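pls design
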């Protein structure tokens, strides 16, 4: 599983691959990519930027005046090495690419990932979710008579979420394989759990 700092590093490189930004704009863009439930403080962003600079993957271009303050903001940009590292990361399939934490970050940069790698990542994620779904169903089946109503509802909610994700992944995989749109409108159905 990729470390959280690695994901932040690569997400930062991905955002900066679109053009130079100052810290505030970079933090805002990363918050959109990483989602509202993952807090990103300046206390994690600036150590990340220092790491990226130490590796030679980003550089400071100078400073611009802030829109509401007189304090200048440092602008960061990718170096040639930083672009190479990002492209290598974006095109590297592997089991960490379909973990819960990594998958969302990978998906955010799929437009810069080779089609064959996108397909491998999507198939890996689907396989991981199908395994998880099977375990969840088995757990519910074995423990149904011992579960109270609320625990049972929570587990059913988890199963439904996993089923939706598998269905969504199936449609993305079909799209990657260039399956005609008529088949995309009716992706394979995931078997529902019996209650």
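designed seq:
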């Amino acid at each position: 599983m990729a470390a959280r700092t690695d994901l932040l590093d690569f997400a930062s490189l991905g955002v900066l691959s679109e053009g130079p930004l100052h810290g505030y704009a970079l933090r805002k863009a990363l918050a959109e990519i990483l989602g509202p439930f993952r807090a990103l403080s300046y206390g994690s962003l600036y150590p990340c930027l220092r790491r990226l600079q130490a590796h030679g993957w980003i550089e400071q271009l100078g400073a611009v005046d802030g829109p509401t303050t007189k304090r200048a903001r440092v602008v960061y940009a990718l170096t040639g090495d930083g672009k190479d590292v990002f492209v290598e990361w974006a095109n590297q399939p592997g089991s960490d690419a379909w973990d819960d934490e990594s998958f969302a970050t990978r998906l955010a940069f799929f437009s810069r990932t080779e089609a064959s790698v996108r397909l491998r990542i999507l198939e890996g994620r689907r396989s991981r979710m199908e395994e998880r779904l099977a375990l969840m169903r088995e757990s519910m089946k074995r423990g149904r008579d011992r579960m109270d109503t609320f625990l049972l509802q929570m587990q059913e909610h988890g199963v439904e979420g996993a089923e939706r994700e598998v269905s969504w992944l199936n449609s993305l995989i079909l799209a990657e394989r260039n399956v005609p749109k008529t088949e995309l409108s009716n992706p394979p159905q995931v078997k529902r759990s019996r209650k």
